Amino acid sequence: MKPSPGVQPRVIAARVVDAVLHQGRSLKAELAQALPALADPRDRALVEAMCFAVLREPARFEAALSAWMPKPLPRRDNELKALLYVGLAQLDPLALPAHAALAATVDAARSMKRNHQAGLVNALLRRAQREGIAKADVRAHWPRWLRERVVADWPQDEEAVFQASAAEPPMWLRVNRRMTAPEAYRDQLAQAGLHAQTDDAASDALRLDAPVPVAALPGFDDGVVSIQDASAQLVADALAPAHGARVLDACVAPGGKAAHLLERDPSLQLTAVDIDAQRLQRVRGNLQRLGLHDAARLIAADAADTAAWWDGVPFDAVLLDAPCSATGIVRRQPDVLLHRRASDLDALGATQARLLDALWTTVAPGGVLLYATCSILKAENEAQVDAFLARTPDAQAESLDERYGRAAGPGRQRLSGERGYDGFYYARLRKRPA
What we know:
With 434 residues, the chain is α/β, with parallel strands linked by helices.
């Protein structure tokens, strides 16, 4: 019998989900390794959609199987369990055509040399089609210690935060103003059958409510547009370097914020540092796609070890997009909730403080440092900046407006999902003139 179309994407998705859920692997790394096997960008997009749908709510699919099976699958069948999750996710929330989804998933089981279990897959998915998949408390996917921190930090917003973490985010585009304007690019998208909206707060942003493969975006390969959440795009406004300023992006990879700054002002003297030399190659590739080949000086180093890379000439503006818990981008990196440990926060807090103290020495008198994270935890954000200000007499916080979220100590906090944005924190710090 000829296999149903779409078998390979289901097999790949099941193996990625198995690696992330059961083997502790990184979703981003697994997808990067698996997706090149698929020539059709639609198949790559389908794999991503299935993996994200499962990993945003794995407890929901686990509960469904537990309710319908007399005993749980043994560990040796983890790959089959992952395929079942992928099958369930196709029905809800992805709402793919049920007949095609069932046929392809059953054939995927056979392709994975599980012919003897293909009937089980068929029976469970047909039951899900008949009865539906019960909703689950989205909090169930959050480790208890982290749930408690979110509730303690945001008691009035906890439910919205948890719901946003399980929702598919919109696709945010950043239009390269060196090449076109957002309104003009929106018209190009409309001609391609894609509806996009501008955003009042993020001037270079367009919002697509449903994601599409980058190959569907006119001019992507030529650098006309990039993928970047609106929260991250606002960093350029919050830092706001003067024309031609000497700028440092201290934790640059993958380079979207540095590229945005250079798109706005190619005359910036931008130094970009990252501790991971391999990730710097991605930064270089992104800049080349945007036509910014030699616009930045890229350095592989620990940004906190200034003696190893800094020439001693102060910077007018420093961006510290600090390593953090990533609790503001769970909907984009759902495996954060699988891999994060309570002990990580202490280590991250120490790293954030070390970077703040070290990089402050590189800021010119009268210059600014923007501290940013994609976290929603107060310990990493307002408490971290409060502590820095208390020990740094020549630093003072400058106010940011409501575009950046709610007031949160010396900075502003955007919670996950607000305005369709990722969770993000911003604090703009000015060094007093000498």
